[in-house]
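User: hey, got a sec? need SRPBCC domain-containing protein folded
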Amino acid sequence: MKKLQFIKDIHASAEHVYNIMLGISNVETYEQWTSEFNPTSTYEGSWEKGSKIYFVGTDENGKRGGMVSEISENIPFQFVSIRHYGILDGENEITEGAEVEKWTGGLENYSFEENNGVTTVTVEVDALEDFISYFNETFPKALERLKKIAEK
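Assistant: Yep! Here you go:
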């Protein structure tokens, strides 16, 4: 896996950006910025450290799928680390086998650093070779959308 990094400055407090990004008050703010990855993107579960969380959406045939993950760390308004360990296929969790083993343990880390009313969001994501160009194209768009939502 290769570690990719994306950075975006947002003119809002770290607390505000964190709450919008994670959909703390309203899941719709999470769904709005992550719709760049999948128009039906959402999450089910808790952002609490140690919690299981599903990152889900539906495919073009309406089938539900996504990632089975754990919140490895959550320091409010500062840092969130997500460890992916499975695939959600419909209602089935797949946590073993060749498809999962390729990226098991991959992390997605979000850092929030506020300075004079501007929050720098740094995203570090472990990506398989097959996803590098997709992430390089999509993450900047998603973070730009997050910026627009947070700066409203």
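Quick note: The two ends are 36 Å apart (CA to CA). Let me know if you need anything else on SRPBCC domain-containing protein.
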